[in-house]
Amino acid sequence: MINFTVFPRLPVELQDAIWALSLAEPEPEVCIVWPLDLEAPEDQPTLPFIVDTAWPSIAHVCRAARAVALSSPLVRLRYSASAGFLVPYRAFDPSIDCLYWGVSQVNAMEFFFKKTENAALARSLRHIAIELPAMYPPSVMAEMIRESAIFVRTLSFVLPETSDTCSARTEFAPPARRCRLRDIPEGTIKEITLEDVPFLPPHRKRRQGLLEWLHARRGDMDDHVRKFNVTGDEGSAWSTPDQRFGGLEIKIQSFVEWESGQWVEVCGQRKLGLDGQAPRLYHIRGEDRRNPAEYRVLDDDCGIFCSSTKE
Q1: What is the rounded distance in angstroms from the CA atom of residue 53 to the CA atom of residue 30?
Q2: What kind and span of H or E run contains 113?
Q3: Do residues 226 and 237 touch, judged by C-beta distance below 8 A?
Q4: Which of 64, 175, 193, 277 could form a Cys-Cys staple with 273, CB 3.0–4.6 A?
C-alpha cells in the first residue's frame, strides 16, 4: 500500500486518476418536474430533466481533487438564488432516479409521454412518483404505464406528511431544496385513515384506511386495462397472461429534506389551498421559464406561495 505522504510526489496524471476513482457512484435521486403548475396538456415541462446532488466528498479535500470532481460528467453546477451560489446537479438517470409529478401536472404528463420524441425516455423509466390526489382518475396512470412507461418498476403515491389522518384531496408543494422520497412502512400505513375519498358509498362517509385505498387503486388500474383492452408492448409492469400489473411495486412515500444533520419531512408545512383558496402555486409562463441546467428553477416557485388564485 502506498503511504499517503508519497501521494504528492506521484505524477499529476496519476493523482488525478486516483481522485477520479474515488468518486462515489451516483445515488438515486428524485427529479421534480417543472414548472409545478402546468395548466393544460400542451403546457409541457421544461427540459432537460435533472436532479440535485450532494457535493462529492473529494471536492472538500483540496483544490486538485475538487477540479477532478467538477470535471466529471456526473457533476455539473447551476446557480441557486436561494443559496446565493452554484450548487451541484447531474442529468436525470431513468435507471435509478424517480420522476415526480404533482396534481397540476398529470394532464401534461399523459400528453408528454404520448409524444413520439419522448418514447425512449418513457420506456427507460423505472420509477415514477405522483402526488396522491393525482391518482384520480386511475385510468390515467394505467394507460400511461401500459402504453408508454412499460418497464416501470415502482409507482409511488406521495403524502405531504405521515399522520394518523389525511385528506385524499390535500395538495402540497414539493420541497424547495435537495430532497428524497422515503418509504412509509406498511405498519404505519395500516394506522393512517384517508378522508375525502371520492366514489365511496355514503355509509363509508368518504373515509378509508390508507392500505385499503392502496389495494383498491391497484385494482382500479388492473380493471381499466382489462375492460378497455388498452394496447401496448409487453413490459415488466404489466403481465399479459395474468392481466394485472404484477411487475409493478406500489408504494406510499413522503418527501424528506436534509435539515440539521438528518432527513425530515417538510411538506406538512407546504400544503396548498383547496377550491381556489390561498395559498396556490405560481403559474410561470413559457417566456419566463429559465434553463434548468443553468438556474435552479425550483427556487422560483417552490419556496414561495402565491396569495391569490392561479393566473
Answers
A1: 10
A2: helix 106-114
A3: no
A4: 277
